[in-house]
Specification:
Layout: H1 5-14, H2 24-43, H3 73-77, E1 83-84, E2 87-88
Helix pairs in contact: 1-2
């Protein structure tokens, strides 16, 4: 896909970007190169390639889901400015 100067101006307008007129030709070349690379990547047959979550074939170590701290809610709520029924009360922000 080959872009034109007008395409770059339109893209810049839609993205609300200011581009100097003397730099537009450079952007045309750069964006055309990027789009050509994307076309090359899309042309590769990857139907036989399995999706990977990790290229190193590693598994994630998981810890047991256990409580490791004591409940200190009452201690923390003693210094709170407004508490009711074990909950922190905050000013209403949505009407």
């Amino acid at each position: 896909m080959t872009l034109k100067s007008d395409d770059v101006r339109n893209i810049a307008h839609l993205a609300r970007l200011h581009i100097d007129e003397d730099a537009i030709d450079d952007y045309v070349d750069d964006l055309t190169s990027i789009l050509s690379l994307v076309d090359q990547m899309n042309a590769v047959d990857s139907s036989a390639v399995a999706p990977l979550s990790n290229p190193l074939d590693a598994s994630q170590r998981l810890r047991n889901d256990e409580v490791t701290e004591t409940n200190q809610r009452d201690k923390f709520q003693q210094i709170a400015p407004d508490v009711a029924g074990g909950f922190y009360r905050v000013p209403k922000v949505i009407e």
